[in-house]
């Protein structure tokens, strides 16, 4: 099985969040399971220096005469071939910019010519999120089936159709409401949804949620049709078991039992001068999607019983609110994303807050449980699929009162030491490895390879 993953980021070469983590782990596990795996991603200006150029030349693609010179870089690691496409839109620092729809339209068009230049013909192309949507469309036009994974439906790669349609290189029939047109815009997310043989989300619950008006982001009608055709499923993300392993974590004093967990808590208290109250941690983008405004509003009650340690950045209003609280004791706020500190919070906190309004999968709750820290989560998406009531604590409404009530439940369990220790042990024993999800994707690839290509409106078979 020759599989090509296409994504905007891949750890450790480029990363801004969970998507990079997925592409940093899933391909290697699939390679270990016997697949021939290639990952294609942009060659950003500030990517690591170990990328070796293996091809340079002018690229030609139907309807795409303006791609110009393309450089292809390569890294091989853990049985995976990583290819990085060097195009003018990516010759600047940073991953994402205001003109990303144009940038990733060029990237999506360049993927297929790049594979052809290296004589690489995949059995399946697996695109991840809107930045890879166009690559799935071009693969389908070349007669290769695609799997398209929605990691977050909220971000769709939209631009006005007058300017955006030419960027894609696709013919005029591709811009109707049944294809890429979306309320007067071109949508690269729809390119992936419409042209893929199978659409997946990163958890079973999220696959059902996006069929509703609340979570469907205006695409629920299209998604309902895809689901009715048997082309929609949810496969829960795995967790990089090597990177997140309390037994061998270089960022903390490694531990494998409750005594080590207690020592990690003492170290975190000493680092920030915290008192003896239990610690509620959070490592997150500071955004309404993540419910961090809910956490901020719940602090007046939470600080009566908890120390609260938050690491993250994002919405300036939330950053300012957390800084204000940090001046009054029992709240620690560290702005930014610091890898080592994140590990120390996962290890040293007693509970972990994830009041997300929606959460396609979420990795933080898995990491927390692996480190013996019990999640307090809203009942949505992958949080439902991974946090059971006998380990963590769940709440429904998107309100500070509901979060505070769940934290009171956690506090009562914390006071009952046998109950708390049992929960911690159950959480640490859970297996969130990529082995199961990787095998599920390989089975899906075999299914789409054996089936007829998905019909697309306007495209003659």
TrEMBL record:
One BP annotation, GO: glycogen biosynthetic process
Annotated metabolic or biological route of this protein: Glycan biosynthesis; glycogen biosynthesis
Organism: Deinococcus arboris
SUPFAM superfamilies assigned to the protein according to its UniProt record, in alphabetical order: UDP-Glycosyltransferase/glycogen phosphorylase
UniProt gene name: glgA
Keywords: Glycogen biosynthesis, Glycosyltransferase, Transferase
Top EC category: transferase
Official protein name in the record: Glycogen synthase
GO molecular function terms noted in the UniProt entry: alpha-1,4-glucan glucosyltransferase (ADP-glucose donor) activity; alpha-1,4-glucan glucosyltransferase (UDP-glucose donor) activity
UniProt-listed Enzyme Commission number(s): 2.4.1.21
PANTHER family, A to Z: ALPHA AMYLASE DOMAIN-CONTAINING PROTEIN, GRANULE-BOUND STARCH SYNTHASE 1, CHLOROPLASTIC/AMYLOPLASTIC
Domain Starch synthase catalytic: 2-224
Reaction equations catalysed: [(1->4)-alpha-D-glucosyl](n) + ADP-alpha-D-glucose = [(1->4)-alpha-D-glucosyl](n+1) + ADP + H(+)
This protein's record includes keyword Cell inner membrane: no
Binding-site list for ADP-alpha-D-glucose: 15
Function summary: Synthesizes alpha-1,4-glucan chains using ADP-glucose.
């Amino acid at each position: 099985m020759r599989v090509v993953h296409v994504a905007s980021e891949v750890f450790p070469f480029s990363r801004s969040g969970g998507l990079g983590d997925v592409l940093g782990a899933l391909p290697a596990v699939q390679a270990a399971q016997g697949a021939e795996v290639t990952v294609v991603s942009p060659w950003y200006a500030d990517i690591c220096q170990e990328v070796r150029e293996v091809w340079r030349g002018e690229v030609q693609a139907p309807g795409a005469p303006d791609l110009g010179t393309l450089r292809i870089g390569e890294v091989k690691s853990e049985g995976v071939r990583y290819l990085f496409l060097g195009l003018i839109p990516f010759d600047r620092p940073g991953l994402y910019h205001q003109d990303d729809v144009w940038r990733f339209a060029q990237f999506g068009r360049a993927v297929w010519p790049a594979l052809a230049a290296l004589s690489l013909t995949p059995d399946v192309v697996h695109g991840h999120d809107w930045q890879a949507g166009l690559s799935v469309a071009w693969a389908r036009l070349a007669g290769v089936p695609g799997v398209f994974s929605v990691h977050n439906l909220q971000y769709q790669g939209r631009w006005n159709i007058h300017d955006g349609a030419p960027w894609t290189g696709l013919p005029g029939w591709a811009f109707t409401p049944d294809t890429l047109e979306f309320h007067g815009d071109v949508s690269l997310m729809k390119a992936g949804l419409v042209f893929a043989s199978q659409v997946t989300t990163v958890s079973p619950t999220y696959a059902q949620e996006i069929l509703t008006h609340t979570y469907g982001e205006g695409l629920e009608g299209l998604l309902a049709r895809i689901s009715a055709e048997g082309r929609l499923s949810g496969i829960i993300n795995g967790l990089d078991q090597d990177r997140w392993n309390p037994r061998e974590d270089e960022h903390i004093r490694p531990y494998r039992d409750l005594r080590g967990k207690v020592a990690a808590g003492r170290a975190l208290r000493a680092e920030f001068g915290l008192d003896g109250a239990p610690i509620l941690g959070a490592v997150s983008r500071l955004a309404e999607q993540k419910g961090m405004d809910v956490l901020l509003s719940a602090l007046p009650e939470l600080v009566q019983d908890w120390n609260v340690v938050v690491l993250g950045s994002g919405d300036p209003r939330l950053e300012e609110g957390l800084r204000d609280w940090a001046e009054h004791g029992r709240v620690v706020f560290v702005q930014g994303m610091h890898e080592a500190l994140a590990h120390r919070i996962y290890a040293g906190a007693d509970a972990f807050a994830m009041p997300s309004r929606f959460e396609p999968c979420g990795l933080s709750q898995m990491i927390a449980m692996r480190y013996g820290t019990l999640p307090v989560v809203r009942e949505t998406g992958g949080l439902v699929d991974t946090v059971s009531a006998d380990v963590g604590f769940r709440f429904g409404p998107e309100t500070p009162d509901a979060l505070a009530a769940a934290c009171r439940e956690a506090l009562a369990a914390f006071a009952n030491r046998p109950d708390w220790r049992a929960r911690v042990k159950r959480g640490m024993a859970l297996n969130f490895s990529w082995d199961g999800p990787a095998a599920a994707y390989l089975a899906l690839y075999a299914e789409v390879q054996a089936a007829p290509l998905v019909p697309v409106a306007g495209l003659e078979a």
